[in-house]
Amino acid sequence: MGQITLEEVAKRFGEVEVIPPLDLTIEDGEFVVFVGPSGCGKSTLLRLIAGLEDVSGGRILIDGTDATDASPAKRGLAMVFQSYALYPHMSVRKNIAFPMRMAGLSKDEQDRRIEAAAKALNLTNYLDRRPGQLSGGQRQRVAIGRAIVREPSAFLFDEPLSNLDAALRVGMRLEISELHNRLKTTMIYVTHDQVEAMTMADKIVVLQAGRIEQVGSPLDLYLRPRNVFVAGFIGSPRMNLFSGPTAAEYGAETIGVRPEHIAISAEGGKWKGRIGVSEHLGSDSFFYVEETGLTETITVRSDGELGFRHGDTVWLTPNEERIHRFDKTGDRIA
Amino acid sequence: MARAVSRNAKIGWTIAAWSVALIIFFPILYTIITSLKTEQEAISGFNLIPSFSLSSYEAVQSQNNYWRPFSNSVVIAVGSTLLALIVAIPAAWAMAFSPTKRTKDILMWMLSTKMMPAVAVLVPIYLIFLRTGLMDTRTGLVIVLMLMNLPIVVWMLYTYFREIPGEILEAARMDGASLRDEILYVLTPMAVPGIASTLLLNIILAWNEAFWTIQLTTTNAAPLSAFIASFSSPQGLFWAKLSAASTMAIAPILILGWFSQKQLVRGLTFGAVK
User: What are the φ and ψ backbone dihedral angles of A50, each rounded to 5 degrees?
Assistant: First the structure.
């Protein structure tokens, strides 16, 4: 079991309110990602759930039991830190065994679980090494191994991949997703990388300045962002946002069009502009169109075979059905 | 760091370094040389070649048994250091990982007590010792030296602990470690190099401490520093004997220091380099 409920949970550091009272329910077995720009309070929220920080108000329920004042050890959660936080003076085996040793498990049971975790995480040949002798990816796997053997009711991940290089990050992302599919344990994952959020999550929680901007499935957020912030934050490259007369035309304060919902043509269309930078990835091409007189640059995503170059004059046409409209307060107009 | 250093510069610096080292070491060397002279030689003026007479050592040993003050020194230096560590490790843990607005002030205040001349508190401590029967006991000296060196021990451990990432301790907490487990199984083993150099430096400080040991002991608990002092006797100064006593007193700590140079250098530059 691993249902976590936050009721009016708030956090203040002195006079500064980092997290105004918020409510959130994380269902058993869900993979939930907290995403937001740095300083949005996502790590603090995770640490509140872990018990590493005390709440300034509200309640935290784990499987229906009030855990607000429980020590981290008593909450039955396991955490994987950004810096891995392995014990440098212990071998991999001892690192993984540590939580079981603290829980007073029998030596046989410890060995059994270590073997199983090492096998699942490809660490069998490294059990007698120290963390200092391992690569970043291996260290991360040890940290995950140390979390798995506790058989926690939920895993907490605090930006676990941000110290890895790009190729490893993609690999570990898949491993963590597979782990979730296999264990079916609740996972809460903090990241500032919206690609990680989109690819891994069952449910994404977008945070800004400690407030929840939107909660929903990745596609939900992508197709129906609740406000301008979520619209701009989710999706890569970013959604194009227009205000002023362009938006007024659609009866809105701000409108947004995703790069793939704008058609580009050399012959004619709605908005005229000139290609600034073009990026050809093979599968896709990204064009950054300038001098449209609407907004600084408009990003367009199109077919990889399209051969526009820097300086070409082009015409852009947004897909009218895919335009997102927002009112004065930034909220979505249904 | 890769910098080309010319051969001449290397030779120059080597000579300079050895000269400075020799100047610093010379008083100790001359004490050892003098201890190997007869009393006549010792007072006959500057002379670097002794007659290698061991008569002074024999005289010292027969006049005043060496082993008793030696064992006192060991008990007092090691005892006060271990006691200081037991008190200082939790204190430094609290200051390093759970600091408050006043932590820096407390550290400065603790250090400021070292700026006060020890003689200023001699009378109260002397009276306390008289009343509690601690005078001329090893227990008394262990307690006093522990208190005197505690600020330095806390400071050193604090700087070492600060280098340990807090996330590792948080990981231990998540893994179900109690505060005791956290300090015992995670913090202390990780801080072993720091604790070792603190331990060594403090043993040396306690071993060489002369003010309190001379004031608060007579015969029973007198360590080696008091043993040396006993040779600047009312019968007049006997240079060779005094040197022999000094050599015997400093030899153990000199040997200990020699074998733990690496740890000590780290200890002495604590906080300066990572």
Answer: -70, -30
